[in-house]
Specification:
heterotrimer; A mainly alpha (about 260); B mainly alpha (about 280); C alpha+beta (about 375); A: about 260 residues; mainly alpha; 2 strands; C: Rossmann fold; 5-stranded antiparallel sheet
């Protein structure tokens, strides 16, 4: 089978190019601005403010214990929620994509709900439910809340991956003598591995990034990093945020570049 | 295979029933209950919370939120369509890179993104720096803490949600259709309205839902960019739960949000027909 | 050796197979052929164990294997789109079943090499699957299915994804591979020329029922019904009225085609007597029809013996097809034109023009008759 070359596609109208440049500016300029200001220190000199290059915000960031604590909480929650979401999600995705059992369609619809339900509703619904059961809010409730929406993303990604591969692959393996467990280990799992990785990464990112659900389901001593960020911003300008944001941007960018390189190999 | 896979789905089923169906069910139930004077729940059924939600004091917040959401969605569409088309027509090798760029802010912390908009529009920001330096204004123009800032924030945050589903559809489009249309005498505008737009419709519908629903329930953007004067639905609901502690009223407002969401899905089905399948980024 | 006994299968309310029974011999190349959606793939999946019949049994050497799981059946399948494992290379794919059976590595390597040699792919052992052409993938799928020497090889339209040249080539190779291995092949296809060219015997399926089983020449030359007649190869069909036996000839009868034209046809041996005056269909293969006056004198006498029938028709089309020439001519009373296919080397260079009046000749033995209601 030869790989079919794509016909050249038409060039869009010049206004489309202008909009494109504007849109990318809108999306990327704020990030650049944060990067820029993280290295700038204002100096007030006889009423006028001037700016100079400085690493003072990074220095303060590294000496901020509260941020370190919330970072640990965030990592803990994200790790556990990812673990739960990945295990339940992968099993569920295989069942939904390859199986045919009563209630399958309903379950498919249910898994879509967290994708479309506003985060706010997910958060307050969890709060109501947990408080009804008399659960004390804290890291466990955070994990349960995060795992539920992360689950939906894991399933969507793994199902998409499975759908790209013919079910006859698994049939072929069974036909060649593999028992169901061997089929799963030798065929299904290796095939969906990239999807499982991508799904888990997505789950981790979403949990780590989440504010609103945490806002509703976190307890007194279980603030996550985004919650800490929020209160820092909400109650007075705190320029360490620039430094922290810049580091998050750099880490994310690095992640994208690496995964892009990996995919091309 | 099918019997075994039913067992594989069991944990998922249990988890979703326990952590999704039950909680949302109780939002509905709570919306029909009463609040005691100390914020406790009184288990008597009433429609008071809904009646109160329709009170002009609160209803105008709902209407304002709805209008802003519509505006945001339209802006996202106006920018997202040409953006998606430009990416879809770019050279095959460039497309993943352009999409990654689109996702770059996406994967950075949401609060950072919103805060960055504040920085851009603020008195210390680059826009004001240019304005002051060029002598157009003598003092920085404060653009934050306004509906304008909220709209910019929404646009900057939700544009990728609109662009990606449209791109997914357009990227797979058979571009010889455009040549065929031109060959049959269609001019540029006709090619756009009669070929490109109808084919992109499933993506447009998905994008619209992906933008409309979360924007209506948005809390952070109005909170950080709108200032104290700008109260939108998301903030109103959050306040009921975390500050005022009137959970039944908050639940009723949340039900309103769910209703709008369901209506938008129904509308999507109605317009999109068979192409109404959600395309997810 | 392999028997299918009275198998029924439905999906929901849709009946897919109805009382299907087949007997396959050892080392036989057996084809199952029918239009798409006729149930032939379902039958193959029942043999492989992917589907359970609602009723009926599958027997292998007398043992009932109806309920045996796919992985415990000594039959392997070549899938329509090959189903090669994308995360393994050629040798790993071929060696998969040996690995499952815990065959030791040295022996495994020997068997994989042998299988790859059989399909002429030995030099590709270390290639990743996505670096193979369609034809090469086909060979790997074949090697993978035969490496552990199953008793039966099931092939689900394995050639349908290949282009014509390659398909013809693979037909020959598959056939010779089957002879060398002495394995039973069950070959599902919708391509009638493929089935005729390759099979020892074949079964024609329509709408979930087996309509005829036989050798290719039996099924082609003596179709049991109108479906088989028209599904395998091209066929002329004339509509007329049965007029009774030809005097002095037991097995021939007369059919009135209207406007004074009639022809003698062979009568079916088994079916009931056709009442005189009944509406009937007459079938004649195009290659059995001769256009009088265009044949070279030498060929004329050699290829055409006695011609019982000569019908007058108007020439509507001449199609040059390289080795053969197809003439189409319309009888005044028939809806469809009749086609006559003649070898190019038998046809003189001067040919009748479109619109010319021509005579179509054929032997009574080459035309057979089915009464109008009998069409399936």
């Amino acid at each position: 089978m030869s790989i079919r070359e794509e016909n050249p596609r038409p060039r869009p109208h010049v206004t489309a190019y202008i909009v494109t440049v504007g849109a990318y500016a809108l999306l990327l300029l704020p990030l650049l601005a944060v990067l820029f200001y993280s290295f700038m220190e204002p100096v007030v000199d006889s009423g006028a403010t001037t700016w100079r290059l400085s690493l003072v915000w990074y220095d303060r960031l590294f000496h901020n214990d509260v941020i370190a604590t919330t970072l640990v909480t965030s990592l803990q929650v994200a790790f556990c929620a990812t673990l739960v979401a990945t295990f339940i999600g992968v099993a569920g995705a295989i069942a939904l994509e390859r199986g045919n059992f009563p209630g399958r369609r309903l379950l498919v619809t249910l898994t879509m709900v967290p994708l479309v339900m506003p985060e706010l509703v997910m958060g307050l619904a969890s709060l109501i439910w947990f408080s009804l059961q008399g659960l004390e809010l804290g890291i466990p409730t955070l994990i349960m809340g995060h795992a539920t929406f992360a689950l939906a993303y894991v399933i969507t990604i793994v199902r998409a991956r499975l759908a790209n591969f013919d079910g006859s692959l698994e049939e072929a393996a069974a036909d060649l003598g593999a028992t169901p467990w061997v089929v799963f280990r030798k065929i299904t799992l290796p095939i969906i591995a990239p999807g499982v990785g991508a799904g888990a990464m997505m789950a981790f990112t979403l949990s780590f990034d989440d504010f609103l659900i945490s806002f509703f389901t976190a307890g007194v001593d279980s603030d996550t990093l985004p919650m800490r960020l929020y209160s820092m911003i909400r109650f007075g300008l705190n320029r360490e945020i620039y430094a922290l944001s810049s580091m998050l941007i750099l880490v994310t960018t690095l992640g994208i570049v690496v995964s892009y390189r990996l995919r091309r190999v | 295979m099918s019997k075994r896979s039913g067992i594989l789905a069991l944990p998922l089923m249990l988890w979703l029933v326990w952590f999704l169906v039950m909680p949302i069910g109780f939002v509905l139930i709570y919306s029909l209950l009463q609040r005691g004077s100390y914020g406790e729940i009184i288990w008597t059924l009433t429609l008071d919370n809904y009646r109160r939600a329709l009170d002009p004091l609160y209803f105008q917040i709902f209407v304002k939120s709805l209008l802003l959401t519509c505006l945001t969605t339209i802006l996202c569409l106006a920018l997202g369509l040409p953006l998606a088309y430009t990416i879809a027509t770019a050279a095959k090798r460039q497309r993943p890179l352009l999409i990654s760029l689109l996702m770059l802010p996406f994967l950075t912390n949401f609060i950072v993104r919103v805060y960055a908009i504040r920085l851009i529009l603020g008195g210390e920001g680059p826009i004001n720096a240019v304005l002051v330096a060029s002598g157009l204004v003598s003092n920085p123009v404060i653009m934050t803490d306004s509906l304008f800032a909220v709209a910019v924030g929404m646009l900057a945050n939700y544009l990728p949600f609109m662009t990606l589903p449209i791109y997914v559809v357009q990227e797979k489009m058979d571009f010889s259709l455009l040549e065929a249309a031109a060959d049959l005498g269609a001019r540029r505008l006709a090619v756009l309205t009669r070929v490109i737009l109808p084919i992109s419709m499933p993506g447009i519908m998905s994008g619209t839902v992906l933008v409309f629903v979360p924007v209506l329930g948005e809390y952070m953007i109005p909170d950080l960019l709108g200032g104290a004067k700008t109260m939108l639905l998301g903030n109103l609901i959050t306040e009921q739960f975390l500050k005022v502690r009137d959970w039944p009223f908050g639940a009723a407002l949340a039900m309103l949000l769910i209703l709008v969401m369901l209506a938008s899905f129904a509308l999507q089905r109605l317009i999109g027909g068979k192409g109404g399948r959600l395309v997810h980024p | 050796m392999l028997s299918i006994v009275d198998v029924d299968k439905s999906y929901g309310s849709q009946r897919v197979l109805t009382s299907v029974s087949l007997q396959l011999g050892g080392g036989e190349f057996f084809s199952i052929i029918g239009p798409s959606g006729c149930g032939k793939s379902t039958l193959l999946r029942i043999l492989a164990g992917f589907e359970r019949p609602d009723q009926g049994r599958v027997l292998l050497n007398g043992a009932d294997i109806t309920a045996v799981a796919p992985h415990s059946r000594p039959m392997n399948m070549v899938f329509q789109r090959y189903a090669l494992f994308p995360h393994m290379n050629v040798a790993e794919n071929v060696g998969f079943s040996l690995r499952i059976k815990k065959v030791e590595p040295a022996e495994r390597r020997r068997l994989v090499d042998e299988a790859l040699n059989l399909v002429a792919m030995a030099s590709f052992a270390d290639r990743p699957i996505d670096k193979l052409s369609g034809g090469q993938q086909q060979r790997v799928a074949l090697a993978r299915a035969i490496v552990s020497r199953p008793k039966v090889l099931l092939l689900d339209e394995p050639l349908s994804a290949l282009d014509l040249q390659l398909r013809l080539h693979m037909q020959v190779e598959l056939r010779s591979l089957q002879r060398r291995l002495g394995m039973t092949f069950v070959f599902v296809t919708h391509d009638q020329s493929e089935a005729l060219a390759m099979s020892d015997r074949l079964a024609v399926i329509n709408q979930g029922r087996i309509v005829q089983v036989g050798t290719p020449s039996e099924v082609y030359e003596q179709p049991d019904n109108a479906f088989v007649a028209t599904f395998l190869g091209s066929m002329n069909c004339l509509v007329g009225q049965y007029m009774g036996r030809v005097e002095g000839r037991r097995q021939h009868g007369w059919v009135d085609l209207g406007e004074g034209q009639h022809c003698a046809v062979r009568l079916p041996e088994t079916t009931a007597v056709i009442p005189v005056g009944a509406k009937v269909q007459v079938f004649i293969r195009p290659e059995k029809v001769r256009l009088s006056g265009v044949g070279l004198p030498a060929a004329q006498s050699a290829s055409v013996g006695h011609q019982d029938n000569e019908l007058t028709a108007l020439m509507t089309d001449v199609a040059y097809r390289g080795a053969t020439v197809e003439f189409c001519a319309k009888l005044a009373t028939q809806a469809d034109p009749m086609s006559a296919i003649m070898l190019n080397s038998d046809v003189a260079s001067t040919r009748p023009q479109v619109g010319a009046k021509v005579k179509l000749g054929f032997a009574a033995d080459d035309a057979w008759i089915l009464s109008g209601g009998a069409s399936v």
